[in-house]
Amino acid sequence: MFVGVGASRVRDLFNKAKANAPCLVFIDEIDAVGRQRGTGIGGGNDEREQTLNQLLTEMDGFSGDSGVIVIAATNRPEILDSALLRSGRFDRQVSVGLPDVRGREEILKVHSKNKKLDRDVDISVIAMRTPGFSGADLANLMNEAAILAGRRGKDRVTLKEIDDSIDRIVAGMEGTKMTDGKSKILVAYHEIGHAVCATLTPGHDPVQKVTLIPRGQARGLTWFIPGEDPTLISRKQLFARIVGGLGGRAAEEIIFGESEITTGAAGDLQQITQIARQMVITYGMSEIGPWALVDQAVQSSDVVMRMLARNQMSEKLAEDIDNSVRQIIDSAYEIAKNHIRNNRECIDKLVEVLMEKETLSGDEFRAILSEFTDIPSDNVNRKPIRELIEA
């Protein structure tokens, strides 16, 4: 009944645009109709492909003085049909990435104009704390903080509301506090293990806070704040993240015994395995050598792209990759276990304080840790982002 409706609407759209020239035509989420042709079932004659063919025909028929400019947006440019991207159609591409620290600061100023902020709230500090946030995330952050302030009966948004909003956006809703003593102690050692191993490994981001308050699926959380925008990451930093990620499991094994390790490290193991695999196959940071070992299409998150891509990897190379990934993780795990063994007294003290307060700030954590051992200088004396910008 509706066959050809999409193509008909495209014709009507461009006829209307030509009648109103000069005119701008904006197509949002163009990947909905502009996906690569020939990937569907039915011999390429489905409704979506007819709509795309009509769009290609209309754009190809423009004369130089038609006065119609077509602009489109998508967050999946890799799956667009090649005919759409050729010269004469969408021949100019503008990539809009996630904002850097300066961009986040300016975006936060826009979204905080209509909100009353406490005088202690520093927009630049919030920008430092939110790497990887998009403009929509930052708008959501300020709205969540305003809602929390209203619920708590405050007439201004304070740092407490902003901190809680960041935690909620990143990790999920706050859960019910733990009452079971055994589980709480185990989670406390797990989180302190993360914090200690990360802080004592050169190259890791500083600890921002350690908490036993559950959020989402996590029973406890250790937060880190990057010293600078993570656009370029060194091998030392990636390896330090693996050591820090394994700190929780290492603490469980060393302190409670191998038979008492829990399922709490499942998310950590997924993250560190992904980092180690990327170090080997994408960044060339292993003994195999500095070359890309897997085609980008094979690693793509798009199912169709992965189906179309041919994986030409040999069995020997796949085995070498697995061995390299395991070697990176095994060496990191040994370092993590050594950190736990060598700092047992300090860890016990930190867990005691954490059990009492339920949340430790980064400064409180480092103050206690520095009483027992030296902290690597590059994990403490990093230049703040504000100094780097002014320099």
Automatic annotation (TrEMBL):
Family from the record = Belongs to the AAA ATPase family. In the N-terminal section; belongs to the AAA ATPase family.
Question: What is the designated name of this protein?
Answer: Uncharacterized protein
UniProt entry tagged with the keyword Cytoplasm: no
- The entry's keywords: ATP-binding, Hydrolase, Nucleotide-binding, Protease
Q: Where is the Peptidase M41 domain?
A: 178-368
Entry's InterPro entries? AAA_lid_3, ATPase_AAA_core, ATPase_AAA_CS, P-loop_NTPase, Peptidase_M41, Peptidase_M41-like
The record places domain ATPase AAA-type core at 2-97
Q: What is the lineage of its organism?
A: Eukaryota, Viridiplantae, Streptophyta, Embryophyta, Tracheophyta
Q: Taking every annotated instance into account, which residue ranges of this chain make up the domain AAA ATPase AAA+ lid? A: 120-163
Which is one Pfam family of this protein? Answer: AAA
